[in-house]
Amino acid sequence: MDYQQSRAYVSDADRYAGGALDLTNIKELMKRLGNPQDQLKYVHVAGTNGKGSVIAYLYTTLSEAGYRVGRYISPSVYSYREKMEVAGRSVSREQFAGYVTRVAAAIEEMTSEGLAHPTPFEIETAVAFLFFAEENCDLVILEVGMGGNLDATNIIKNTILAVLVPISMDHQSFLGNTLSEIAEKKAGIIKPGCSVVTAGQQPETMAVIKNVCAQNNADLTEADLREAKAVKEDFAGQILEYRGETFELSLAGSYQTENAALALEALHVLEKKGYPTTVLQRKKGLKDTRWNGRLTIIHRDPLFIVDGAHNPAAADMLEDSVRKYFKGRKMFFIMGVFRDKDYSYIIRKLCPYAQQIVTVETPDNPRALPAGELAEAIKPCNPHVQAANSIEDAVNKVFDMAGCDDVILSFGSLSFIGQITAIVKTREEKNS
After folding, report:
1. Model confidence at 30, in pLDDT bands (50, 70, 90)?
2. Confidence of residue 17 (pLDDT cuts 50, 70, 90)
3. Are strands 89-90 and 139-143 parallel, antiparallel or unpaired?
4. Cα angle, residue 52 at apex, residues 233 and 398 outer, rounded to 5°
5. Res 252 pLDDT > 70
6. What is the mean pLDDT of residues 272-292?
7. Average of pLDDT values for 261-287?
8. Single residue among 288, 315, 339 that ends a domain in this structure
9. How far apart are alpha carbons 119 and 14 in whole angstroms?
């Protein structure tokens, strides 16, 4: 099949999602593909908020140090193929189509024998493993899709390092209704004898992580976030001091000092595991790291920022950045959310800061909350809200409202950041 056919094949598999959450399908699928994942070594990253940023820091720094590193993330922001990348290059259209063709043949064998059809995420994960194996990666950094123990990425055996970013309440219908329950599932990525790095955990979460490490004879390192200090910061970046060294970060947001500290601790542990990096490589890696969709500037005059904040912990961090960087400036919001998220909390934390709010329905997703419903939910908190007919309509509305010195902020989901960015870029080109 060609690239478009392969994309359609993966999308069509969405009708098989929603079944039992376990590793049965992915294990059977990978066995029929020759278990390419067993050829590789991994850094496995789980948690609630900060996974993508920590992965970006590690990926950029290790690549700077000369390692051939693979990266698997979800969701993608600007390009579907950015989910899987090696040495700064996303999987090509031709490669992706070829891998999906191989995966589809294995799936056809499975279903002909009465076995269940894998989900889109399982198919994408299988494709990623094929890609990374053929690219002969020195190390692969994997982001957990959801949870940990039963996530498709957890089929791997050769985990060098498990990284657990701060864990908070999210995906309760799948992972549990307490922090301890959720932490136990996320800590399921810890393999016997691997190293573990974490930071910023609640006491009950930390107790679970320590217990799982003890059960697996896994050595645990906790980054000391009290030593992570931003000595200079604004919405365009910051200077971090950590353990006697100074690092320039191109990523904004007060939470990025914590993410960078966790990444630095992970790099120190990787050095002991045979993947050394120099201080200069770490400094350049952190400075050169880019991570789209996290307090990302896409336009100036007015300042237009996109952020993927979509759960309570992310809303707390975004509110901190709003108070710190934009005090005294008029703000105009675009907000779109999934209906299964705790959007009422996000509304309470952020919507009081806006002069006007425009709501959107996140595109092409059955979990999307209609713009009108979201607007009604916001009104008790901030009556200056209106629903847009489309993403483009929302962008046009906020540009009409905002002056050159004002701030436009889009948040609530990563799913429409790419579309908003493209619309804003098109406006710029028309007006240039």
Report:
1. very high
2. confident
3. unpaired
4. 65
5. yes
6. 96
7. 97
8. 288
9. 6
- Mean pLDDT computed over 315-342: 93
- Boundaries of domain holding 255: 3-288
Q: How many CB atoms lie within 10 A of CB 132?
A: 27
Cβ contacts of residue 114 below 8 Å, gap of 6+? none
Q: How do residues 175-196 score in pLDDT, each as one tens digit?
A: 656 888 999 999 999 999 999 9
- The domain that holds 105 is classified in CATH as 3.40.1190.10
What are the helix (H) ranges across 379-416?
391-401
**How many residues would you count in the chain?**
432
Predicted confidence (pLDDT) at residue 171 exceeds the cutoff of 80: no
The C-alpha atoms of residue 172 and residue 169 are separated, in whole angstroms, by: 7
pLDDT in the model for residue 178: 87
**Both 300 and 284 in a single domain?**
no
pLDDT digits (tens, 9 = 90+) for 362-378: 988 888 999 999 999 99
Closest CA to 175 of 314, 13, 311, 47: 47
Note whether 301 and 278 are same-domain residues. Answer: no
Same domain assignment for residues 274 and 302: no
pLDDT tens by residue, 99-119: 999 999 999 999 999 999 999
Cα 410 to Cα 432: distance, rounded to the nearest angstrom: 23
Which residues is 299 bridged to in the sheet?
Answer: 304
Q: Which residues contact 124 (CB under 8 A, 6 or more apart)?
A: 10, 74, 83, 84
| Largest CA-CA distance found in the chain, in angstroms, rounded | 65
CB within 8 Å of 396: residues ≥ 6 apart: none
Cα–Cα dist 224/198, whole Å: 9
Pairs from 364-368 (Cβ < 8 Å, separation ≥ 24): 365/338, 365/415, 367/338, 367/339, 367/340, 368/336, 368/338, 368/339
Number of neighbours of residue 41 by Cβ within 10 angstroms? 17
DSSP code string of 358-376? EE-PPTT-TTBPPHHHHHH
Amino acid at 21: L
On whether the CB atoms of residues 317 and 254 are closer than 8 A, the answer is: yes
* Backbone conformation region of residue 88, classed left if phi is above 0, alpha if psi is from -120 to 50, else beta: left
Name the amino acid, one letter, at 319.
Answer: E
Contacts of 403 (CB under 8 A, 6+ apart): 302, 330
